[in-house]
Design brief:
Distance between the termini: 35 Å
Shape: elongated
Radius of gyration: 23 Å
Largest sheet: none
Number of helices: 7
Mean pLDDT: 84
Low-confidence stretches: 8-19
Structural class: mainly alpha
Number of strands: 0
Strand content: under 5%
Order of helices and strands: HHHHHHH
Helix content: over 70%
Length: 189
């Protein structure tokens, strides 16, 4: 458990102590493992929701550009022969924005990303000697609260975020990077 050993060395500790009730070495190792799992989840969730936020932002902007471009073409009468097609395209892009609610989804993912990174900050901000099972349980409760608000996850995008987090932590072989063709559709299914 390199995460635990590193933390103990950094603080010059061999056995963690807490002002309430000291944890046994075995119990501390279990609590530390749960802490690391919650921290990893928070970082992956942050990456995931920032990517979704960016995706919906780009799609929303492209939809607006298409609608404005079509409107300019109609107003400028530059495409009189294609007026029905341009009008249909404008209506279709407006319908996409209405049905899929890009702006609402973007905002939802922004808020979830902020909650996840706040949770990561809370975990990383706690000094090792203050780590207790109660603190880890509170983080697990926060994770559950965030998970309740999350829309269904996209498997390939989750795999991409897990791989990026593993690389960021110095474990590039921990999981496989999704292939190029899988990444092409990772925001859709």
């Amino acid at each position: 458990m390199p995460c635990l050993a590193h933390a103990l060395r950094m603080h010059g500790m061999t056995t963690p102590t807490v002002s309430a009730e000291p944890l046994s070495d075995e119990k501390f190792a279990e609590v530390w493992k749960r802490r690391c799992e919650q921290l990893n989840w928070a970082h992956i969730t942050y990456r995931y929701h920032r990517k979704r936020q960016r995706f919906f932002d780009v799609v929303d902007k492209l939809t607006q550009v298409a609608a404005v471009g079509g409107g300019v073409a109609v107003a400028g009468k530059t495409v009189p022969d294609y007026l029905p097609a341009v009008g249909g395209a404008i209506a279709f892009t407006g319908l996409l924005a209405l049905v899929f609610g890009y702006g609402d989804k973007r905002q939802c993912h922004k808020e979830l990303a902020e909650l996840a990174i706040q949770m990561a900050g809370d975990i990383e901000g706690l000094p090792v000697p203050d780590l207790t099972e109660a603190r880890v349980c509170a983080w697990e409760k926060t994770r559950t609260t965030i998970s309740l608000r999350e829309p269904a996850s996209l498997k390939t995008l989750v795999a991409k975020c897990e791989w990026e987090q593993a690389v960021a932590e110095g474990h590039p072989n921990h999981c496989e990077q999704p292939g190029f063709f899988r990444q092409l559709h990772m925001h859709f299914f």
